Amino acid sequence: xxxxMLCTAYADLVPPAAAAPAARGVxxxxxxxxxxxxxxxxxxxxxxxxxxxxxxxxxxxGELNAGCGAEYVQKGRLPPRGLDSPSEGRACxxxxxxxRVVFHYWRGAAGGPKAAEWRLLDGDKIAALFxxxxxxxxxxxxxxPALSMACVQTAYANGASGRYxxxxxxPTKLAKTGVKYVHHVAVQYDLAVxxxxxxxxxxxxxxxAVAALKxxxxxxxxxxxxxxxxxxxxxxxxxxxVNQAIGDALSDMLLVEAILSLRGWTVAx
Length: 269
Description:
Helices cover 46% and strands 17% of the residues. The chain has eleven helices and nine strands. By secondary structure, the protein is of the alpha/beta class. The strands form two sheets. It has a five-stranded mixed beta sheet with strand order 2-1-3-4-5.
């Protein structure tokens, strides 16, 4: 049931033409030899028409988190084993218990090993991506009264990510280190993005936000405003896709993929 919920939301969020695996290519998932690998299996079958996934560092491929996984990649600024040679395409790394995710890729891989540069997209980048997505949809809806929104970070966050989020008109709030502290600040807002740099985070919707979005959807449909109706539907689908509790790397991974698909962006974009 949980996987049906995730996959239904992903399919509702991403137009079929944008989601075609042939257009997007394969997402390689480093599962850190942990629980994420077997839990990805139900997703592989259900998402096949919309998203192509392949798994490296699965169960039995080595010691848990050894030379792989989100913790190794983000702290060491190194590609995981199995993906440490320049290659084209995009990848992400889960940690051993699949509550963190970071993305990475090789820039310039087509030019050969000497031209390739490995690039990390950590939790700060994911927070910025989520915040910009929500801002775009809210701008289209122009809800009155406006929903309160914030991006919650810790003192370890990249300062440039905070400046970028504030440039969108979204305030950034600092919390003590640890997602339990960040989460408690985030729930004070109608909508909140929070991530630690290690890839642990989520996108939260309050009950009031969900009610306002459902009302906006009904109003737009009655008025025949397809643009606003689509924006409301996308936000409601994102709410279904992203776990409202702390730390679900699979759902965060899918929302990153959905936003990139919607925008027609590569991982480098």
